[in-house]
Amino acid sequence: MSKIVTFGEIMMRLQPPSYKRLIQAESFSVYFGGSEANTAAALAQWGEKAVFVTKLPVNDLGEACIRNLKSFDVDTSYIDRGNGRMGVYYTEKGGSQRPPQVLYDRQYSDFSLAQPEDFDFEKIFQGADWFHFSGITPALGGNLPAITKAAVAAARRAGCKISCDFNYRSKLWSTEEARRVMPELITDIDALIINHNQANEVFDIEADTLEEAAKKIHALFHPGLSVITGRKTVSGEVNEFSSLIYYDKKFFKSRTYSIFMIDKIGGGDAFSAGLIYGIVNDKNLQEAVDFAAAAAAYKHTIEGDFITAAVSDIRWVMRSDGKGRMVR
Amino acid sequence: MSKIVTFGEIMMRLQPPSYKRLIQAESFSVYFGGSEANTAAALAQWGEKAVFVTKLPVNDLGEACIRNLKSFDVDTSYIDRGNGRMGVYYTEKGGSQRPPQVLYDRQYSDFSLAQPEDFDFEKIFQGADWFHFSGITPALGGNLPAITKAAVAAARRAGCKISCDFNYRSKLWSTEEARRVMPELITDIDALIINHNQANEVFDIEADTLEEAAKKIHALFHPGLSVITGRKTVSGEVNEFSSLIYYDKKFFKSRTYSIFMIDKIGGGDAFSAGLIYGIVNDKNLQEAVDFAAAAAAYKHTIEGDFITAAVSDIRWVMRSDGKGRMVR
Amino acid sequence: MSKIVTFGEIMMRLQPPSYKRLIQAESFSVYFGGSEANTAAALAQWGEKAVFVTKLPVNDLGEACIRNLKSFDVDTSYIDRGNGRMGVYYTEKGGSQRPPQVLYDRQYSDFSLAQPEDFDFEKIFQGADWFHFSGITPALGGNLPAITKAAVAAARRAGCKISCDFNYRSKLWSTEEARRVMPELITDIDALIINHNQANEVFDIEADTLEEAAKKIHALFHPGLSVITGRKTVSGEVNEFSSLIYYDKKFFKSRTYSIFMIDKIGGGDAFSAGLIYGIVNDKNLQEAVDFAAAAAAYKHTIEGDFITAAVSDIRWVMRSDGKGRMVR
Amino acid sequence: MSKIVTFGEIMMRLQPPSYKRLIQAESFSVYFGGSEANTAAALAQWGEKAVFVTKLPVNDLGEACIRNLKSFDVDTSYIDRGNGRMGVYYTEKGGSQRPPQVLYDRQYSDFSLAQPEDFDFEKIFQGADWFHFSGITPALGGNLPAITKAAVAAARRAGCKISCDFNYRSKLWSTEEARRVMPELITDIDALIINHNQANEVFDIEADTLEEAAKKIHALFHPGLSVITGRKTVSGEVNEFSSLIYYDKKFFKSRTYSIFMIDKIGGGDAFSAGLIYGIVNDKNLQEAVDFAAAAAAYKHTIEGDFITAAVSDIRWVMRSDGKGRMVR
Amino acid sequence: MSKIVTFGEIMMRLQPPSYKRLIQAESFSVYFGGSEANTAAALAQWGEKAVFVTKLPVNDLGEACIRNLKSFDVDTSYIDRGNGRMGVYYTEKGGSQRPPQVLYDRQYSDFSLAQPEDFDFEKIFQGADWFHFSGITPALGGNLPAITKAAVAAARRAGCKISCDFNYRSKLWSTEEARRVMPELITDIDALIINHNQANEVFDIEADTLEEAAKKIHALFHPGLSVITGRKTVSGEVNEFSSLIYYDKKFFKSRTYSIFMIDKIGGGDAFSAGLIYGIVNDKNLQEAVDFAAAAAAYKHTIEGDFITAAVSDIRWVMRSDGKGRMVR
Amino acid sequence: MSKIVTFGEIMMRLQPPSYKRLIQAESFSVYFGGSEANTAAALAQWGEKAVFVTKLPVNDLGEACIRNLKSFDVDTSYIDRGNGRMGVYYTEKGGSQRPPQVLYDRQYSDFSLAQPEDFDFEKIFQGADWFHFSGITPALGGNLPAITKAAVAAARRAGCKISCDFNYRSKLWSTEEARRVMPELITDIDALIINHNQANEVFDIEADTLEEAAKKIHALFHPGLSVITGRKTVSGEVNEFSSLIYYDKKFFKSRTYSIFMIDKIGGGDAFSAGLIYGIVNDKNLQEAVDFAAAAAAYKHTIEGDFITAAVSDIRWVMRSDGKGRMVR
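ok -> structure tokens follow
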């Protein structure tokens, strides 16, 4: 069991039922999620000691969120508590030509207004093996670029491995801002995960293949592992997901999953969790990327931000033909 | 902002949740809709002054219906009120080999029993720019063929443009009846919209292409615009939708959308609205048919009869690859 | 109207809404079902006198189950009542790479603990034309292999036709056990229905085609009709279903349905019902297999174990192109 | 087991969830009910052979209704089928100062348009022991007063006992009409059940007590049993229910139940069923009225028109202190 | 039809179903409401020209809110639009000893950050007859005390009657703050409505009766009408509501309603609407207070912030014994 | 923070929505609960280290249950896992004259078939301060009386305080069996909690007051604290709850709560938790019984078996007038 720390915002997610639009909403389903929280929930569920660090208000919503994390066995003891508000995001599922929508109401959240002293990273990283964050955390602005930088520095001092899911979000910041802030955070870390299209969008990396993109990412930021994910939108309902690790001039490529998308949120976070899980459990890189890709595919079949699946469920997908045959 | 008048029946629509059959129904979702009401709701939402004329009972269902129309900004001030019943229709979604079902309970509705004097068309069309109706209105029988004729005449006197969505419904009348009643209503109007298959079914128009069908429709009824829509059932879940305007010996053809059908009702009504919207906003015919086709596709992704989408939503689809990619 | 007796277990089925996993369940939809009950409900609904024999506890769940059967016109008068528990099974729908799950909680049910004297088969088969059971019944163990054997013997004495849906369930018994128990029950019966893959899994029948499998099944057990069903998993959402009767050295093959699976349970049971319906109504074997296959496809579009469809619904599918076009 | 025939209309009942008003309805729960159907469902459930006679359309709603009746073991074989519509009624629950609402959409239903020849009462009453109807049936107008009269006459000829629940409905007819039509139907029948207030409203019977009202009803119509029910509205949530039989100059009075009203519909119908049940099972009149009153109280705790309760449930209430104590 | 302007914040209200606590919430029902919006919705529904002035973001939630207001016929044309967030509040129903909860997430809303120039009160009050606001608006802080003051001044200049519902909210500001800000806003207005307990809590008015409180309020602020409402908590489910107008040394007192509380929100806002309605429709003060009190009681039987009731519904309550008897 | 161990069965609880009966159930809400688990969940939530010991199957239901316990911070690390089934119980809410129903399907559960060696009580009680169980655990039969005895003995050896909630369940065993098994388990323990009526039902203790009952219980079993709870059924909706501790010849009596019952399950378990909480936090006995009674009342306002309330919520009730007034 490795101690894996993730740091970021967790929000309440509200989504109308079925294919209803936000503007039609008569009710919302309630979930909790956020990139790093999703990764932590997966890892905790799979048996790792996953510590999720964030800041949440002292009210019933903050409390409900923490209970949700606890139910997945996430260690919530380093969550700072504030007196303000919790970030909320509203989603609608989308369908066919109509794209899924994400409406953020996360500004002024306790996390986005966090202060450097809210988090005692020295203590948090004691005994930690791994630190993971995503590009969303610095994208929230305020003190968060600085706090993230402090976290990375503390993690290094503690001897942790460090990974980052690049996760560029155009609704949070511009590509210019991302280009200004991110390089310092991701250069020379142990694993940098970036989506093929985002590599192009933010860093102008032109690459016809995941392999090519990985090499260019490696050239730019020389992370231990350069990990590229690829998504192709086949239709409003079907996406193709593939991924690849570039390490030591070798490529380790997962199979390509054709996914009927039940929930478009959280696949990348499950991928990160799968990758970390594979590595801390001493799997070889091929097994790690296979597990990570299967976890990503599996996540897209689950409603809610957290992947609700055991290691055995993911392995079942890895061994299967990817067509979800019933056993009875 | 143009004043656009539509005239027809609006009903309460009751549909069991998910894929449930009517015969299994333990609950119904409640919507309101009808061909001309759907078109009006789209146009009002897009900023036009859309006046919907119908007759509804003075009871809580009639009132709920009017509130629903008002929420979309439809002008309901010319709706006549009666003391009888409101039409109701029951739908089940269908799936795979099982076709969607429509069960009408609209007989004896206040609208279907309307009298000519219930509607003061002179007043209604004052300042109006456009009159739209569908073939469903005269199909309801009773006085409605005569009232529709009176409406068309009044619209002409008021200098309105006139459009008709042919909308043949075999559950309401026979092809013989339609052939007897419709020609007088549609000849020489400004825009006649007809489905490729219905052109064949009702008027024996044999045509391999939409182009050919348009020419033949033009030859028969010489409307200003001959507008043909084509639907191909790829499977129980997927339809293809295309459309074309024939005008001045030129064809203006939309792209073909492959649609995962979330709601099979109301696509044609959104198409009509899109066409009218394009024309009254001085778009060229290519833009108009593109907007109309995108509106039709978009509608099929929405639960309920009214398209719940802004002009910008439709334009997003027009600019997109039609695969509903998420932006975040 | 033929009297058709089926014998087996009926359970309460609990399934979380939408695509939710069992582990996420905040609520369950309630259905009742079981292979032989499903077949009986179909036949009763189609106008046959369908007698379903089982054992159910005297409590509100048992009573609710019986009411459900009665609503379909199933004759429940031979259901034995106990003082224990009713079998329950939990399902989750699955989606894409994630397989549907079935979690049985049927052990210790009143039926699985039934005694030979609980069922007076002499009386039950008086005037009966047909007896149908599935391989699930003997798979439940305890006295059930013996009771099933007694039922088959009594049915023979009463001059009934006998059919069996092989229905091997790996969660209930091993292939060895099935090979030990089943042959005695299925040899020389009037119709043996077996899935292509199961023929291979249990009896090592290697066959590239349904035709080949049918011949080999015939050679082994020489039933009146050797009926083979084939399923191909195209994706997590789409299955292909085909079927074939082998009789008197002739093949009667249904068309192949490509089915968007709304409920993965009960297709085979509807197939059995369709086959029996065809035969007792003196249809030729081609018509019978066509009706049976259409019933199987139709069932997979229905939520719940029982097919909720009239004979005319099934015939509509047979005549259609299998794409569920809406009529209105 | 006695054969008890009831005759009247059954409708689909649609009610929004919780305390929602009709005008707010986003969904409806679906029930089926009608005074005489409710009485039949109770009697069938309690083991009598209850035949319910009505007319229903051949469509999915009519079919769903019949299945619902069958699930309660009601004999539906004499239900005539039409090609029109089914009556519908909409209810809202009400609460506190806000009264429950009933909105009828039953005009033009197949039953209300029924013809005398639709029902073969000679056949229906063969072997019947009892005929029950309510004042709602003739209140529907058209041929129904005459058909009801014919039914009463046929029941007499067949030697049935006859009972009527007076059930005056001001939304269906005026007191004048009721006074014109009802006396012929209720004079000299075996049991006339009438609400204390309605006795006053329709027949100007002024009576301070149920006893007094019973005597005056007896004087007017000399039924075998004069049965008076009393309801007192304590608040929007609580009603008091009492009842009394007057027979042979003796009074048999039930206890008074103070009822927290969960569903305001169907209490009187359960009372009628309880009374008939008591009498056909040779209970003395005190036991009969006690059972009937307990059934009425019990019904008001059940959602939906049909009482869903076994004889033992009703007896439990009779023996209890009326406060619904949990046993576990 | 009078033009009545109200000014304040409208929020999205999210409440878990049934008696669920926020911390248990798996779903929320969606409503929109706020004190002044609720008053406007009531008045618009009752036929007045009700203009609601607020500021809402340009997003799907703001749009959904405006549609909801439009469905009630509220004039939304003066609503300013921003680019930030909409206020949200979360409620749980409470029950028995457990109090209802209100959790505000309204800080940083577009309205609470509004600027004086966002509202052109000169234009808004053109032709207006009445201006109504509540003490919640200035309690939101920022510029709102000043903007409210400007609104009051503009209303005076336009010759409007002015009313204020004092509505002290301890979760928004302290009694000290309220005492500092409110007097200037309420002195000498035409109608000041204040709850008996709040009069004591904020202004130390000790009064055993509503009459006494009214006199003291009059002495302090000499409004045209001094209106006192009284609430007594009988139990977690039942409240008593009474009210009184003091004018020209005369008291006009409503009856006291004992209310089974279905929704604890919005009763006071319905009361204000009822009072204004009575006065602008030239009812005498006794009728006005009776209508207002009946509206308040009625509101508490409705789920959601807006009273969904016609004038005739309120009048029905006024004429009734307050016990919600069903008519059918 | 004290370490408090509880031992017993936890089941899945399934309840139809609203006031629906089991026999009408179309869906169930899912909860988890059991007397000792409920007590543990309350204590964990209030900050104690609560260890719940039971046996649960290794399947999705067992896993979901454990996640639910974890979300409340219950220590689940000593839960034994089996390969069988989880106990289930079905409830219906009841209302007015209709009593709530409990239908157990707990026979053959992994817990009820547990073996002595499944629980290592020496290890479990290391460092523990308190052991709590209820009379339900031995009532389950099999090895459970012996295992409970072993647990009590181990707890004594470990120096734990021991408490028992007598909790007689007539659906599980007879009074004779309870009289045979329980005395050995409860004699001389630190706190014995027993309901007034059960003291009479099982031990023939006739007592007009809680005081008298407490003395007699003390005389029989001389526990450290003799704790009596009293419940009076005022109506189907309202219960009165009171309680009393007898210690050192002194009485410590709580106030009497009149409770509108939202959920009839779990009040006693919350009482036990409250009592233990008060004592381990060094409250005096009056404070302890007041907190316990308030917790019991609070629990009955919560849907689900676990009390979802903070210590501050309970204290709010203690300080309030018990009428659930809203603060806003």
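Chain C has one domain: 3-319.
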